[in-house]
Design brief:
Elements lengths: L18 E7 L2 E2 L3 E3 L11 H5 L2 E3 L2 E5 L5 E4 L1 H14 L7 H14 L12 E10 L12 E10 L10 E6 L16 H5 L2 H9 L4 E5 L7 E4 L2 E7 L2 E5 L8 H12 L3 E5 L11 E6 L3 E10 L4 E4 L8 H14 L10 E5 L1
Parallel strand pairs: 9-10, 9-16, 13-14
Antiparallel strand pairs: 1-2, 1-3, 1-8, 4-7, 5-6, 5-7, 6-18, 7-8, 10-11, 11-12, 12-13, 12-15, 15-16, 16-17
Bound molecules: pyridoxal-5'-phosphate (PLP).
């Protein structure tokens, strides 16, 4: 293979050597299959295609300075997938099977794991779909769990920096008692219009309020929100946001740094009082927010006047990356060495 241009990878898709699969039939999971076929052969009547019986996850494998390859909080992702399965009436994938398949697919594609110095990583995408051919609306009997990987570039090409967000009141990505707390493709389909609208106006992302009252902060695009003030890490409590593993980890690290963590409803006006704000998720760890504009009220909540991320966001960002790359002691037992 010709050497990939590791430094210039985007968050795109590059076909790798192998993917791993496991099918569910007759009420049980089968054997793990290794495939070099990037395509899935299934019926055009499969439930995932018509009724959105589809769940996914996203995590990364990091080539570390000590030469090992680590993954971050695999069990948390397994647990979240199981929660999504319950939400969409799909069979839950056991944690051991999930973990084994993730390790296997990373090891099989070792040559696609970017070198440490590049800042790039191997993105791991587990995917679960209903495959039974039927047109009646009820859960499938057959499922396919697939895990593929693709190398992705560093999120911040020009270094850790802030971007502007815009409040959307014309679109919701999820309903209060809907599927917002599950990692399903349908939530993303529902967010595309708002995302396009935000991009057209020069914003990096749309910012959602709670769908019912439009009073409280929900999510920033496909990332969780946090605000920092008075040595407190404040993040929304809502039934319609996805429980981010990154956010959960940052809450712990904030506590470790002696900060108070508050998980509660955050009225939009409270944005005025935050010293720093960020969006968090696996892709960026933290995407610091420059400002949030609210076109309806004409307000602009500014967090970074000089375009530079705040000191606490910066500290949390480096602390989490240091753990993921094995540069700092993993006191919480979050990482798994996949290749020694
Ligand atoms: C995946 C996802 C996140 C981030 O979760 P992480 O586990 O931190 O990667 C946040 N919001 C939505 C809607 C997501 O789908």
């Amino acid at each position: 293979m010709k050497e990939l241009d590791w430094k210039n990878l985007s968050f795109g898709y590059i076909q790798t050597d192998y993917n791993v699969r496991c099918a569910y039939h007759d009420g049980k999971w089968g054997e793990i299959e290794i495939s070099s076929d990037p395509n899935i052969n299934m019926s055009m009547a499969a439930t995932c295609l018509h009724y959105g019986q589809e769940a996914f996850e996203g995590l990364k494998a990091y080539r570390c300075p000590d030469g090992k390859v680590r993954m971050f909080r695999i069990e948390e992702n397994a647990a979240r997938l199981q929660s999504t399965c319950r939400g969409l009436v799909m069979p839950e994938l056991p944690t051991e099977l999930f973990t084994e398949m993730l390790k296997k697919v990373v090891r099989l594609n070792e040559r696609f794991i970017p070198p440490y110095e590049s800042g790039a990583t191997l993105y791991v995408r587990p995917l679960l779909i209903g495959t039974t051919a039927q047109v009646g609306v009820h859960p499938a009997k057959d499922y396919l769990f697939v895990v593929f990987v693709t190398p992705v570039g560093p999120y911040f090409k020009g270094g850790f920096s802030t971007t502007p967000y815009v409040v959307t009141r014309d679109y919701d990505r999820s309903a209060p008692l809907g599927t917002g707390c599950y990692k399903v493709g349908g939530n993303y389909a529902a967010s595309l219009r708002a995302n396009q609208w935000a991009h057209e106006q020069g914003y990096s992302c749309e910012f959602y309020l709670d769908a019912k009252e439009k009073k409280y902060i929900d999510e920033c695009g496909a990332a969780n929100f946090f605000g920092i003030k008075e040595n407190k890490y404040v993040t929304p409590l809502s039934t319609s946001i996805l429980p981010s593993v990154t956010n959960k980890s940052l809450m712990q690290l904030a506590e470790d740094l002696g900060m108070t963590v508050e998980r509660r409803q955050i009225p939009i006006e409270e944005l005025e009082t935050f010293e720093e704000a960020g969006a968090c998720g696996t892709a960026a760890v933290i995407s610091p927010i420059e400002r949030i504009d609210d076109p309806e009220t004409g307000k602009s909540y500014v967090f970074a006047k000089d375009g530079k991320p705040g000191p606490i966001s910066t500290r949390l960002y480096h602390k989490l990356l240091d753990i993921q790359y094995g540069r700092e002691a993993d006191v919480h037992g979050w990482t798994t060495v996949v290749i020694d």
